[in-house]
Specification:
- This protein is mainly beta.
- The protein is 11% helix and 40% strand.
- It contains 2 helices and 4 strands.
- It has a 4-stranded antiparallel beta sheet.
- The termini are close together.
Length: 80
Amino acid sequence: MLHNLGGEIWIDAQERIVTRLVGWPAVEKASDQNATGTSGETPPPAVYVEMLRLPTGVWLPHVSRINRSRLSKALRRDQL
């Protein structure tokens, strides 16, 4: 699934864990890109995940958002 997304991944260098992942559909139609308004606006991500490190050193999911309408542009029907 992730190979159909483009975006950013933050990794904690010491603990080697993904601390944040933000992804948009890698390929979008020009009409979809223009539908967000001005050309400088970034559309909302299809996937947003943020981890939180507790004082004990344990990492837990802190925020997790999946925008299914945007994610469906990056996936085939059998992957939904």
